[in-house]
UniProtKB/TrEMBL annotation:
Name this protein carries in UniProt: SCO0930 family lipoprotein
Entry annotated with the keyword Coiled coil: no
Keyword set, alphabetical order: Lipoprotein, Signal
Alphabetical list of Pfam families matching this protein: Lipoprotein_15
Stretch forming the signal peptide: 1-24
Length: 322
């Protein structure tokens, strides 16, 4: 009996050791490592849950399901994102990372299409700044035709309520405004680029800069400040930012270790969130950006609610009260 009990305890201890090692030490040949430890909310299917931003049914009207044409497309110069595509009414068009461009395929149906209304292919025409040959269409599962740009299916966002809104940008780390070639519109991409060219943007996926107020802080590849949420935990990895929270605090998408600069590699793993979104961590702490930061160098998220703070290269909170 004692032999059996000792063996059982040894197996349990080994299992705990494996999990602990995975979140707190380098993963060797693994690019990022991967953890799905704990959750603040039950898991949702990747295709029709949090994987498209956790925004279905929230601000999305049933009418949002019906595909509407874009009319005469236009290219708008966004101070945050450079050139972005809009429809004839000035509403931003978006693309979904879970779709594919080659071959074109939409993976946003049902509730997803309520939050992200499909742009119909019919009745759409090109505009200066958009190569007409980049426009196309894809047949959806219901047989309808959806507009594509550069092979990527196009959507609007139900929570954009007026021309010029870009509330869908970065939602869930997988929804992005479309550039004229169908690629993601991002700060520093194309003409106009970042709103503040005096702030250098490091090409590394994650790096650091010296902020005059906060000292060393982590920034993403676009120069935007990276934050942590005090209500999250590192072990077990849990997130308390779900649903509408992700609109204000988009997750930092997984980053290749080799594309970082000056960032702690220990505990640099990917968090497989319960909502299907993959999130980068430092020292196992989930990372976010802030939608209220509109240009490189902004730190508008610092101290928000007494729970959101910029982080050091070691994943420590900057300026948080003890």
């Amino acid at each position: 009996m004692n032999t059996w009990r000792n063996a059982s305890l040894a197996v349990t201890a080994a299992a705990v050791l494996v999990l602990t090692t995975a979140c707190g030490q380098d993963k060797g040949n693994d690019q990022n490592g991967s953890q799905s430890v704990g959750a603040a909310s039950p898991a949702q299917p990747a295709a029709n849950g949090g994987a498209y931003g956790n925004d279905y049914g929230s601000g999305a009207s049933p009418q949002g399901v019906a595909a509407k044409p874009a009319g005469q497309l236009a290219v708008r110069q966004s101070p945050e994102l450079g050139k972005i595509v809009t429809d004839s009414a000035g509403f931003t068009l978006y693309r979904f990372d879970n779709d594919t461009a080659s071959p074109p395929k939409s993976n946003c149906d049902g509730d997803c299409a309520k939050a992200w209304p499909v742009v119909a292919a019919a009745g759409t025409s090109s505009a200066p700044g958009i190569d007409a040959s980049a426009l196309g269409e894809v047949t959806r599962t219901d047989g309808s035709k959806q507009l594509t740009i550069g092979g990527w299916p196009m959507y609007r966002f139900a929570k954009d309520t007026k021309a010029g809104d870009i509330k869908g940008q970065g939602v869930g780390g997988i929804w992005f405004a479309s550039a004229p070639d169908g690629k993601k519109a991002q700060a520093g991409a194309g003409d106009g680029g970042a709103a503040n060219p005096s702030q250098p943007v490091d090409p590394a996926g994650l790096s650091t800069r010296q902020d005059p107020k906060l000292g060393e802080i982590v920034i993403d590849k676009n120069g935007m400040t990276v934050y942590r949420f005090k209500k999250d935990s590192a072990w077990p990895m849990k997130t308390a930012c779900t649903g509408d929270c992700l609109q204000k605090w988009p997750v930092v998408a997984p980053v290749d270790k080799n594309s970082t600069k000056g960032i702690l590699k220990k505990g640099f793993v990917t968090f497989n969130r319960p909502d299907g979104i993959k999130q980068q961590t430092i020292d196992c702490w989930p990372l976010y950006t802030f939608s209220g930061d509109t240009k490189p160098g902004d730190i508008n998220g610092q101290g928000v609610g007494g729970t959101w703070f910029a982080v050091t290269s070691q994943g420590k909170l900057v300026g948080a009260p003890k």
